[in-house]
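pinned: reference chain
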Amino acid sequence: MTIFRDLSQHILDIAENGVKAGATLLHITIEENKAADTLHIAIQDNGSGMDATTLAKVEDPWFTTRTTRNVGLGIPFFKQAAEMCGGSFRITSEPGVGTLTEATFQHSHIDRPPLGDLTGTLLCMIVGFEGVDIVYRHRVDDHEFTLDTRDIRAILGDDVPFSDPDVLAFLSASLHEGWASLQGETN
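pinned: its structure tokens
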């Protein structure tokens, strides 16, 4: 059984669901508003989406579309984490369009899981989800960082993969610099 210790693991799980559903584009948006005491996470994909019957069951931990096990805990755990921290959870989906999963947490709640190694998780997704573009937008109050792999792919062309050591170093540095800027750190 998978235990999610931080929010980056929830984000990875939801993103993997989208990729398994045929997504070629993932939007991962994180908004931290300290004045409003909220942390909002949204993961949107352009995968196959779900019909109303499947969508009605997706929050049930005993429901899964997988054939390798008979439980699907990722979405129920994400929902539970948000609701236990004074927040909310919502998932919407449309067949042929994709799925939007959103969770809002009370930012200062003592039980709110940390974001975790978000830069490492994003790097793994960018390199590991072959053929999938990722738009990552993270806002902390008035500071914002965005990374769009479509822009990077346009510069690199089709011949240079994200797993190329130089590209990997660039992506890692960009994500770490973006994270530092959101935390108010300067070089």
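why pinned: The first helix runs from residue 7 to 20. The first strand starts at residue 25 and ends at 33.
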